[in-house]
Amino acid sequence: MKEIVIDLEAEKNEILKRYRALLRASKSTLQKGDKRMIRKAFDMALESHKDMRRKSGEPYIYHPIAVAQIAAEEIGLGTTSIVCALLHDVVEDTDLTLEDIEREFGKKVARIIDGLTKISGVFDTNSSLQAENFRKMLLTLADDVRVILIKLADRLHNMRTMEFMPRDKQLKLSSETVYLYAPLAHRLGLYAIKSELEDLSMKYMESETYQFIKVKLNEKKAERERFIRDFIEPIKKTLEAQELHADVFGRPKSIHSIWNKMKKKSIPFEEVYDLFAIRIILDSAPDQEKSECWKAYSIVTDQYRPNPDRLRDWISSPKANGYESLHTTVMGPRGQWVEVQIRTKRMNEIAEKGFAAHWKYKEASTDSGLDQWIQKVREMLRNPDSNALDFLDDFKMNLFSDEIFIFTPKGALIQLPSNATALDFAFEIHSDVGASCIGAKVNHKLVPLSYKLQNGDQVEIITSSKQTPKEDWLNFVVTAKAKAKIKSSLKEEKRKVAEDGKEILERKLKSLKITYNSDNLQKLSYYFKLQTTQDLFYNVARGLIDLKDLREYQASEKLIEAKPQDKIEAEQVQSLLKSIKAKDSDILLIGEDLQKIDYTLAACCNPIPGDDVFGFITVNEGIKIHRTNCPNATKLMSNYGYRIVKARWTNQQELAFLTGLRITGIDDVGLINKLTTVISTDFGVNIRSITVDSDNGIFEGSIMVYVNDTQHLDNLIKRLKMVRGVTAVTRFDSPQSIGRAS
Ligand code: MN
User: Fold this and answer.
1) Which range has highest mean pLDDT (307-316, 419-428, 543-552)?
2) Catalytic amino acids?
3) Fold of the domain built from segment(s) 657-737
4) In contact, 142 and 130? CB cutoff 8 Å
5) CA 558 / ligand 1 centre spacing (Å)
6) Is the entire prediction scored with pTM above 0.90?
C-alpha cells in the first residue's frame, strides 16, 4: 500500500492563499459588509468539508473556492452567488441543513442552495429520472438564473479536474456536458465557457483526435502568429490615424470547433482555413458604438476584399442570447480567407461573460432577446403534459440552433430557430393560429405548411376553422412551442377516442364473460403490448383490437402476470450488470471465451479492436458495444448512464470486423480495379460491398471491408491513399440507426 504523507500546515496556507485570490477576483463587485459575508461562508464551508478530500487527494474545500472564483471572475457574478458557490455542496454532502443556511445567510441564499442541491446528480436510477433531473435544473431558470450559472461553474471545475476520475465517470460527465451543459452555456451567451466545456469533453471522449489537432496547431504556431502580425499591421495603423481606440488581435478557434468543421466538410486538418479569427475591440462612447464599428468595417474592407456572402450584422439585430458583433470574412494577403469580428468593449464583455454582464448593461440595451428566451423557457416548462425525455429533446434542439428573423405582414420582427417552418411561425404568432393553419404566403407566394423559412422572409398565415393539428406535423416543426401544442392537442383527441373505446371494450368483455376490472385491463394491455389502459381503449375504438383478438387472448395459456414495462426493464438491466460484476471485474472483456455474456457490436458505429469502446445494456438484445465517439454515444451515456458498462478488447487475431471506408478521388476507368486489387490481393481483406458514385470526373466510393483491428485498418488506409488518383480515404460510421436507444 502506498503511504501518503500530508503536510497539514502547508495545506492550511494553500487554502488561505486560494481564498485570498478569490477575494481579489471579486473585488470589483464588493460592497460594504460583503467581505464579511464571504468570509462567513468560507469558514462554514471549510469547517463542514474539513475531513473530506477530492479524488485527487486534495482537500475538498479547493473545489468550492474554485467554483466561487469561476463565478466571480469568468461569469462576473456578485456576492450572493459567491456565497452560494462556496456553500453549494454542503447541504448535500455534510451535516448542515438548509435551515442552518437560511438562519445564517437569509432566504435568498437558502433558495439558491436548495435549487443547486435538488439538481445534483441522481444518476444511478433510470432514464426518465435523469431527464426529469435535467428538467428540474431548467425549472430553476425560471426561478433564479444564478442556480444554473453556479451549476455551470461547478461543472466547469469538475471537468477541469477530471483526470483522477475512473474512465466510465469521465465518459459520463463528458457526454452530459456536450449534451446539455455546453448548449446551455451557449444559450446564456457564455461563449468562453461553452468552448472550454466542449474542448474538455472532447479531450476525454475523443482523446486521439483531440491530441492530434492540438499537436498540429502547435506545429504551425509561429507561422500563424507571423501571419496575424502582418495581417493586422495596416489595420492598426489606419485605426490610429482615424483616432479610433481599439485592441486588435488574433484569436485561435477551439479544438472542438475545428474538429466540427473537419467532420462537417469532411476535410483534413490542413484544409481548415479558419484556425483563428481576428478581433477588433473598440473602446467607444455609448452613443458612438454602432457608427465606430462600421467605420472599422470600412477600414478592414478598404485593405482586404470582403466575401459578400459572409457579412453578419448582429449589431442591428443581436442574437437571442444577447450577442452583438459585426462579422466579415476577407481575402488575406496569401489568398486565404480570414474572419474578422468587430465589436465594442461592452459587446465583448457580453460575448465572454454572457448573462451576468448583460444584466449590468441592461439599461443600455433596448431589446433583450435573452429576456424573451427565458420567458419562452418558462412557457415550455409550464406545459405539464410533455414527457420528460421528449421535452429534453425538443428543448435541446432549441438550445443549439441559431436564429433567423422573420417579418409579419405588418412588418413586426419574429425570431425563430433556423430550419423553422411556416407552421412554426404560425404557432409562434398564437397557438390557435397554428392549430388552424392550412397554408402560408411567403413573400406573397403560396407555400405548404412545411416550407422552411429563410432569414428576412415575410410571412402571412392562412387559417381555416375546419383545420385540426395532425400527427405528421410533428415531422417538420422545430420549435418546442409548436411541438408541445401539437402533442397536447393530439393527446386530447386520443383521450376522446379512448372514451368510446372504453364503452366498447366493456360490452365485449361482458359478452366473453371476462370481468371488467383494473387487474384484467392491465393483463390485457400487457398481452397486446400496450403501455397503458388508455392505449388499450384507443386501439379498441380504432378497431385495431377486435373480438377475435380478445377470444385468442382468453384461449391463450400465457395469462401473464401484469407487470409494468419499466420494472421488467430495470430487472433485466440489474441481472445483466450482476452477471458481469460476478466475474470479479467490472470491465467487460470483449472476445473473452470464459465470459458467457451476450454481447454484439453496434451497427451504428461498427467498432473494431483498438477502438475506444463501452458496453450499453439493451433490454432485448443483450449488451451492445459502441465506440465512444459513436454518434449515439452522447445520448446513451447522458440519458441512460446506469446502463453503461466499461469494456475493453482482448487479443484476438482470427476474427474480422466490418468497417466502412469512404474514398474520394479523380475518376479514372481503372480506379475501382486498382482499389480492389490493393484491398483483396495485397492485403487479403474481404470486401462485403462497394458503392460508387461518379460525377463530373470526381469519384466517390463507399467500401465495406472486414479488418482485424485499428492497426490493420490504418495500414490499409495508408496504402489506399498511395493509389494514384485517390485524394482522401476516411473511415465512416454507417449513417443508419442514429436514433433512440432501445
Ligand atoms: Mn460541486
Assistant:
1) 419-428
2) 92-93
3) Alpha-Beta Plaits (3.30.70)
4) no
5) 51
6) no
